[in-house]
Amino acid sequence: MRALLRLVAYLAAGVFIGKVLHLEHLEVQKWYEPVTAGLLAIGLYASTYGIQVDEARRHVKLILAAVTIGVLFKAVIIGGTMWLLWMAPVFFVRAIGVSQIDPLSVARLLRKDSPMSPKAQSILGAWSSFDDPMTVLLGLYVPALIVPGVPGSEPIAEGGLHGYIIGLGLNLVFALVVWVVWRYLRVSLANTVMVLVAGYGLLTMSFATAVMFLMMLGLAIIGLFLRPSKAVVGEDEVDRFDRVVERAVDAAYAVAAILLGVLLVHGINIWAGIAMGIAAYFVQSLVALLLTRKLGWSDRVYLMLAQQLGITAIILALRFEPAYPGTVAVVAPTIIVTNLLYAVMHKWAAPRLIARLAG
Asked: Is the pTM of this model over 0.85?
């Protein structure tokens, strides 16, 4: 609930700033696209940086199904529900942006006293981290296939299915090249200081490349292995860079949420936001129910009720807004409603449902 209140405070601050400074067309500024791309890059790298790779490998089939079939299924069902209610195909585009689980919120959930088993925690942690970049990849290439954007506004890559396949290939090549270079540096540089300097230099170049060419899936993959400090002090050690990543994400979240609030000076579509928030939350329940048949009911319930939205949904809304005006007006209340449902259902409904199923 504290995180939800913080989000509302950021949005309110953004609305206040937008009103006072008369920032009515922020999305057409030249700095808007690179700034939002940079914020997205920070969130995606952080989402995979914290993954325990060995744990993720144990559940790779379920995770792959969740981040491929699951993301597509959620986007289609959420968009279809909204289309039936408002008869506007643009809701399929907006649904893409809210079809993932926020990994940073999940990270706060996966604490030592979590009611979920270690197995379920590792599944949810990896699931939420990997479906972020998959959602971003869909958001970059699929919208133009559904609804043409505003002429002259191209915050989203074009090319349809052909562009999607090429983009996927380029992202994989990008990650592979960085992996090869990083492995060479670790082998050839015996001095740990040199390894750190080279690693951080390579990470900086990776970020710059991802932001310039929208290689966001590639950057997320890079987060799985390019961890310069951990390469020196060990995977299980908490080092200074962990705190740097955490603070960078907090700052990126604050900036993104305030920008979202600034764009709300155009207005807010409260009823559509409420409807999409409810749809986004409960479609996760259906997907988790279908994909977790081999888990116990306790873990299945918590995975079904795990949907949260955060920095990725916010930034994708910011990216969509220039081409699809009105997206922010819908997505802002969607995020609030979804996270409010999570706070209520996870604390109140989950224990009662588990007790009934166990009985």
From this structure: yes
Residue 193: which CATH number? Answer: 1.20.1530
Mean pLDDT of 272-287: 94
Residue 132 one-letter amino acid: D
What angle in degrees, to the nearest 10, is found between the helix axes of 311-320 and 32-49? 150
- DSSP single-letter state for residue 348: I
Containing structural domain, residue 256: 2-358
What is the per-residue burial (b if ≥16 Cβ within 10 Å, else e) of 32-56?
bbebbbbbbbbbbbbbbbbbeeeeb
Per-residue tokens: 322: 């220039």
What is the average pLDDT across 31-43? 90
Query: First and final CA of the chain: distance in angstroms?
Result: 30
Q: Does residue 159 carry a pLDDT above 80?
A: no
How far apart CA 227 and CA 235 sit, in angstroms, is: 9
The total number of structural domains in the chain stands at 1
User: Which one has a higher pLDDT value, 12 or 233?
Assistant: 12
pLDDT digits (tens, 9 = 90+) for 218-242: 998 899 889 887 766 655 445 678 8
